TrEMBL record:
It comes from Aquimarina algicola. The keyword Electron transport does not apply. Pfam families: Pirin, Pirin_C_2. The lineage of its organism: Bacteria, Pseudomonadati, Bacteroidota, Flavobacteriia, Flavobacteriales. The keyword Nucleus does not apply. Binds 1 Fe cation per subunit. Its cofactor is Fe cation. Residues 147-233 form the Quercetin 2,3-dioxygenase C-terminal cupin domain. This is Pirin family protein.
Length: 237
């Protein structure tokens, strides 16, 4: 087993006034040649958008974009004709493929919206753009790693054009579990959303990330009440 740790305070930072963002990997004006990606995981941004503000309509292509709201309401609009609102408990996916324009705004005028913006490099280029979102039952996340993203439209959660799996869970203090990669050639990126956890013997705090490769099984222990996102991706990029 090999690991690489990304402590929360070492992430890139952007302050645009209306947007506060922390970047686990190189993005926009933040560049670190040692932190370009973790396999197919290209972007993991931790964004806070001020009330009533947001990202105006802009283009993407050939990228799988997953948004996970943590607080507040985010209003989405795109060139495929979708207009919707995502909130805590929702998972949004957009396959940019041959090209799509979209905007994301904080729908509320009195509170910030917090969300994770995640980009995964696809295994197919120039696919037809698509959009989907689901709402999770919070009870399904209790003391378990619940699948929220997979490569198959037949599986639980939303799907993307990549052999990648995301799992999300909330844990009571003292809870112990493990994660077994779907493909042993894949890497696993663990991102602690809340609390403190020990993963693969590594002590992690809120917003710490841990990349793990060459692991048959990964031990997970909640040192406090905690919330965890697991991202499994191919490493051959």
């Amino acid at each position: 087993m090999k690991t690489i740790i990304h402590k929360a305070e070492t992430r890139g930072q952007a302050d645009h006034g209306w947007l506060q963002s922390r970047h686990s990997f190189s993005f926009a004006n933040y560049y670190d040649p040692k932190r370009m990606n973790f396999g197919a995981l290209r972007v993991l941004n931790d964004d806070i958008v001020a009330p009533g503000m947001g990202f105006g309509k802009h283009p993407h292509d050939n990228m799988e974009i997953i948004s996970i709201p943590l607080e507040g309401d985010l209003e989405h609009s795109d060139s495929m004709g979708n207009t919707t609102v995502i909130k805590q408990g929702d998972i949004q996916v957009m396959s940019a493929g041959t090209g799509v324009f979209h905007s994301e705004y904080n729908k509320n005028k009195d509170q910030s919206v917090k969300f994770l913006q995640i980009w995964v490099i696809p295994n197919q280029k120039n696919v037809t753009p698509r959009y989907d979102q689901i709402t999770l039952d919070a009870q399904h996340l209790n003391n378990t790693l619940y699948q929220i993203v997979s490569p198959s439209p037949e599986d639980q959660g939303v799907w993307i054009h990549q052999n990648a799996w995301f799992h999300l869970g909330t844990f009571e203090k003292g809870y112990t579990s493990s994660y077994t990669p779907k493909n042993l050639d894949n890497g696993v990126y663990a991102f602690v959303l809340e609390g403190e956890m020990t993963i693969a013997t590594q002590k992690l705090h809120k917003r710490d990330g841990l990349g793990i490769i060459e692991a048959k099984s990964i031990d997970i222990h909640a040192d406090s009440t905690a919330k965890l996102l697991i991202i499994e991706v191919p490493m051959l990029i």
